[in-house]
Amino acid sequence: MALRRFLLALYVQTAFAITPADVLSRSYDYLIVGGGLAGLTLANRLTEDSHSQVLVLEAGEAHLNDPLVDIPGFLGATVGNASYDWLFTTVPQAHANNKSFAWNRGKMLGGSTGISFMAFTRPAENEIDAIGALGNPGWTGENLFKYMRKAETFTPPDPAYAAANNLKFIPRAHGTTGPVHDSFSRFICDAQKPWLTAFETLGVHKIEDSLAGEDVGAFMAPSTIDGVSVTRSYAASAYYVPVSNRSNLVVLIGAEATRIVSLKTDETVEATAVEFLLDGEMHAVSVKSGAEVILSTGTIKTPQILELSGIGDPQILSTLNIDVQVDLPGVGEGMIDQFFFGVSFELKNDSIVTLDDLRDPAFLAEALGGIVPNKTGIMTLGVTAFALVPLHTIVGDARAESLIDAQARKIAAGNFSDTQKQKWDVIIQGLREPMKRGYIELTAFTGFFTTASTPVEGKKYMTLTGHLRFPFSTGSIHAASADPTAQPAIDPHYFEQDIDLEVMVDVLKYLRRLGSTGGFKDLFASETDPGAAVQTDDEIMQYIKNHGGTEYHTVGSAAMLPREKGGVVSPELKVYGTSNIRVVDYSILPIQTSAHPMSALYGIAEKAADIIRGIITV
Ligand SMILES: Cc1cc2nc3c(=O)[nH]c(=O)nc-3n(C[C@H](O)[C@H](O)[C@H](O)COP(=O)(O)OP(=O)(O)OC[C@H]3O[C@@H](n4cnc5c(N)ncnc54)[C@H](O)[C@@H]3O)c2cc1C
Ligand SMILES: *[C@@H]1O[C@H](CO)[C@@H](O)[C@H](O)[C@H]1NC(C)=O
Ligand SMILES: *[C@@H]1O[C@H](CO)[C@@H](O)[C@H](O)[C@H]1NC(C)=O
Ligand SMILES: *[C@@H]1O[C@H](CO)[C@@H](O)[C@H](O)[C@H]1NC(C)=O
Ligand SMILES: *[C@@H]1O[C@H](CO)[C@@H](O)[C@H](O)[C@H]1NC(C)=O
Ligand SMILES: *[C@@H]1O[C@H](CO)[C@@H](O)[C@H](O)[C@H]1NC(C)=O
Ligand SMILES: *[C@@H]1O[C@H](CO)[C@@H](O)[C@H](O)[C@H]1NC(C)=O
Asked: Residue 19: its pLDDT value, please?
């Protein structure tokens, strides 16, 4: 059924069919590999110029108008389903009981934004400045925030609802005309209401709007939910659908790129074709002179495709029998993944509506019946309650200082590269200035969201989660085989640096304190996972290793850094040693941020579009 895949705008009314021969015979100025967050943002902006011909190759299917994607309350429902998800796994983790962790990623038009939990937060401005200071001129917080606002249309909440639920925002921090729509969830669980007062009791201040450039404190955040249609706003609905009728845009779904073919001369390496598999058949689309290839395949696939294209560490390429086009040892190195776990509590009051109710088919049918006419209720839910706190809040001032000093000494004494030391120094400096850097994120999830036990029918739960925003442990992602359809070796080195696990033990204890504070104490009947039997530090560590996991926020596998520091791309996002290959996706961040990725990455892709179009230099 190859022809079906070649429909332009498959689910859109304006669809018209073109044949494979048509697609391959056209010539393109930009070949974008990956139709996810960054890829579709670029496709939209680059086709604003009607003279630019753009092709997008996307491995997954389109899921436009799919209720499992569009209806917010189904968040998580497509995670783990192969029609939407690549279903990656890590290699066994030596410091986490040799466990292989599931790593989900969106394999669909819209990429991971289509399966994401829709949380919309921003890093602090100073975090982007720190990325710039690693050797990336032009990358400042002020500038990137401008692009983040360009991407956004924020719909303010109804004032009475906002007042009743403590939903605050600073209007000038938000965009009003961008493609990505965000709004506050129209459903806030009764069991979540004590959030801000509980933090106040624990001495954590409220912040008015975490998207305004400072994010340390407790806050309520919007989600990528369109405030008018009350459906998920994601890369496909935001950046693709509105422009899918542009005649200079061709989007090919079901097309899995396998490598970039390039020509090596004395001066440079130039991409000449992109090969891809479609329904088991190999095709090649040529890159005309002056055209560019933009890899937007995400942090996991981007290093693999670069290596299969001969761009990477010669030692790794030689084990795969791949000829070296560009000697670039940074490819796939310096990868950092954020880790989280939850503590679940059973509610005293079984009448409180939570996502647990959706396990009852009759309840689900009724909730679905209500969402269209009423645009309210649990099916409109997004995650709302967040706090970003410094290490000091979690462990107290004295222990924080001693942990930071010990880690700084360990780094100074160790045999690490200068680049590694510089990146770690950004974390150390952030830890030393508690109000500057949100080191640990805490959230409330409306329902049962842990894995050690199973929820009891008819019971309701709230899960408090803890997230390590700046892990010291650093790993890699490399092609493990010359077969492009085999998954790469994903090795985050979880807990290789002891401090990462030590801190998480304290985070679990802190979540227990939060759960017995303020209004939560009266709402929670008992702790379900890990439960009262888990008490010693060692028991807590085992729980975290066995029942924690990735938060899908992985950076660094094609880092933007100077080449001599192990960088893969320049500040213009050009792959070093090539004349016409760029990477634009989350792999380019050399270090982590405190935020959920989408907002910053939409801004990065908007900025990249201006760089590529020559509107700005960096
Ligand atoms: C389950 C989950 C929940 C998340 N929740 C949140 C959240 O609440 N808030 C938030 O801010 N972020 C969240 N994220 C993270 C966010 O979605 C990602 O960081 C973001 O989408 C990354 O954008 P990207 O462009 O780098 O990659 P993606 O958006 O993943 O896009 C990559 C695209 O490339 C395609 N592709 C890959 N390989 C090939 C190939 N060989 N050929 C052709 N196409 C290919 C993929 O199918 C995909 O469409 C979540 C992610 C996941 C997986
Ligand atoms: C996976 O998604 C497909 C497409 O939406 C759906 O038909 C199928 O029921 C889902 N499978 C599971 C196990 O949920
Ligand atoms: C993990 O695997 C390694 C190598 O196979 C082994 O030496 C080690 O004992 C294992 N660790 C655990 C905790 O099982
Ligand atoms: C595409 O559709 C939009 C809205 O339906 C319309 O405004 C625009 O002119 C159309 N563009 C083209 C190139 O047909
Ligand atoms: C239980 O929760 C429901 C729904 O939130 C509420 O109406 C009711 O008053 C609660 N009952 C008690 C005893 O708190
Ligand atoms: C939707 O609103 C109607 C009218 O107010 C109400 O009767 C119905 O119960 C609501 N449905 C849901 C699921 O909220
Ligand atoms: C330091 O690390 C490098 C690279 O891993 C290695 O080649 C070197 O031998 C190490 N030096 C010492 C003193 O351990």
From this structure: 61
pLDDT digits (tens, 9 = 90+) for 54-69: 999 999 999 999 999 9
- Indicate whether residue 97 lines ligand 3 (CB < 6 A): yes
Structure tokens at 598: 């989408």
251 located within any domain: no
Residues with Cβ within 6 A of ligand 4? 245-246
Predicted pLDDT at 20: 65
Residue with the smallest CA separation from ligand 2 atom 9 is: 81
Cβ of residue 516 lying under 6 Å from some atom of ligand 3: no
Q: Which of 283, 467, 478, 553 is catalytic?
A: 553
Res 548: pLDDT: 98
Taking the whole predicted model, whether its pTM rises above 0.90 is answered as yes
DSSP symbol at 14: T
Q: Give the range of the structural domain holding residue 461, as residue numbers without chain letter.
A: 67-241+335-612
- Residue 161 included in any domain: yes
Give the residues across from 31 on adjacent strands. 55, 293
How many other C-beta atoms can be found within 10 angstroms of the C-beta atom of residue 74? 19
In this structure, which ligand is nearest to the CA of 378?
6
Taking 70 as the pLDDT cut, the residues of the chain under it are 1-20
Q: How far is the CA of 98 from the centre of ligand 3 (A)?
A: 6
Q: Is 100 in the pocket of ligand 3 (CB under 6 A)?
A: no
Residue 527 to residues 134, 345, 358, Cα–Cα distance (Å): 43, 4, 21
Number of domains in the chain: 1
Residue 478 a catalytic site member = no
Q: Residue 69: its pLDDT value, please?
A: 98
**Residue 550 belongs to a domain with what CATH number?**
3.30.560.10
Is 596 noted as a catalytic residue in this protein?
Answer: yes
Written as one string, the DSSP assignment of 55-108 is EEEESSB--TT-HHHHSGGGTTTTTT-TTTB--EEPPPBTTTTTBPPEE--B-B
What pLDDT, on the 0 to 100 scale, is given for residue 2?
31
Please tell me the distance between residue 84's alpha carbon and the centre of ligand 5 in angstroms: 37
Ligand 1 pocket member 249 (CB < 6 A): no
pLDDT in tens, 536-551: 999 999 999 999 999 9
pLDDT for the residue numbered 18:
59
Is residue 43 in contact with ligand 1, taking CB distance under 6 Å? no
Enter the DSSP assignment of 560: B
